Amino acid sequence: MVQTRAAAGPAILVDGLSALQFLATGDGWVMAGDLEPGDRVLSFDQGEVPVAKVFRSRPALRVPQPFWPVYLPVGAMDNDEPAELLPAQMVMLESDLAEELYGEPFVMVPASSLVGWNGIERRAPEAEEIVHLQFDAPQVVFAGRSLLLGCGGAGVAAAAQFRGQGMMTLTATEARQLVAGLIRESGAGRMLPPAQAALAGAYRL
Question: Which CATH superfamily is domain 3-203 in?
């Protein structure tokens, strides 16, 4: 669970899932807010895994714009419903460009790095409850056909954040480079100035 604190203000969460975010389980799609410890969630590479702990938080009433969540419109990542992701929420991307740049086809990136691609943008928060799901080890879970989100592990396992065969976690700079390249390849969306700079760095332009 990651949080920051605005000057003289309440703690502002920057990762976690909206309680209304649907996740895949063996019994179909279930809202994150309805999950309890012991419930099993479909993961990317380990089948159904039990939730170890559930933490619930109320977001701050006023959130400075730099900490606004990331809004994914329908279809941005093959999602059937809009999604609101907190800026540091980790998201999986599968990309030939990722393999070309970083040696792995599956990479985890912070949601904030996706801004400007496929209509993804920052918006004022709407979620009234944020849920943090914790597993015995970090897991990547299905929030849609192609929308996969990272959830943390407990204790020492949390240090292994989303690293394994064929998968790696990118730094913020690496993530911006990758997304800038995806924008360039697809022509989808507006390339923001930080993405332009990151792309220049990635391709040594």
Answer: Hedgehog/Intein (Hint) domain (2.170.16.10)
Domain ranges of the chain: 3-203
146 vs 168: CA distance, rounded Å: 17
Per the confidence metrics, is the pTM higher than 0.90?
no
User: Measured at the alpha carbon of residue 196, what is the angle toward residues 195 and 199, in degrees to the nearest 5?
Assistant: 85
DSSP state letters, 8-36? TS-EEE-SSEETT-EEEETTEEEEGGG--
Sign of the torsion angle spanned by Cα atoms 142, 143, 147, 150 = negative
Q: What is the pLDDT of residues 106-165, one digit of tens each?
A: 999 999 999 999 999 999 998 889 999 999 999 999 999 899 999 988 765 665 577 666
User: Do 69 and 85 meet the contact criterion of CB atoms below 8 Å apart?
Assistant: yes
Cα–Cα distance measured from residue 17 to residue 125, given in angstroms and rounded to the nearest whole number: 12
**In degrees, to the nearest 5, what angle opens at C-alpha 148 toward C-alphas 134 and 41?**
45
At 52, the amino acid letter reads A
Q: How far is residue 55's CA from residue 17's CA, in Å, rounded to a whole number?
A: 10
